[in-house]
Amino acid sequence: MIEAYISNKLEFLIKKACNIIQNTPTKNPLQKEIFIIDNKEVSQWIKIFIANYSGISSNIEFYTLHEFIWKIFKYILPHCNNEYYNNVSLFWKIMALQETENFYKIGFNATKSSIKKSHFASYFSILFQKYMVQRPNWILNWEQDIINYNTTSHSKLCQSKLWKLIINCDSNKLKYNFSNLFEKLLAMNNINYLKSKWLFASRITICSIYNLNYTYLLLLNKLSRLFKIILLCYSPFNTLKFLKNDNKKVLTFHNVCNNNFFNPILKFLGKFDYTKLLILNSQQIKKTIYTHSNYQSNLLRKIQFDITYCQHKIQNNYKKFFCKHDTSISIHACYNFKREIEILHDNLINVLNKNDSIKPKDILVVSNNISNYTPFINSIFNTVTKKFQIPYIIHNKNINYNNSIFNFFKKILTLSENIYTTNEILSYLRLPFINKKFCFSEEELILLEQFITHTNIKWGISNQHLKEISIPCNKYNTWKYGIDRMFLGYAIQDKNVIWNSILSCNFPNNLNINIINKLSKFITVLNKWRKILQHSKLLKNWLPLCTKIINDFFHINNSEVNKKTLIIKNVWNTFINTGIKNNYKKKFL
Question: How far apart are CA 351 and CA 358, in angstroms?
Answer without folding.
Answer: 8
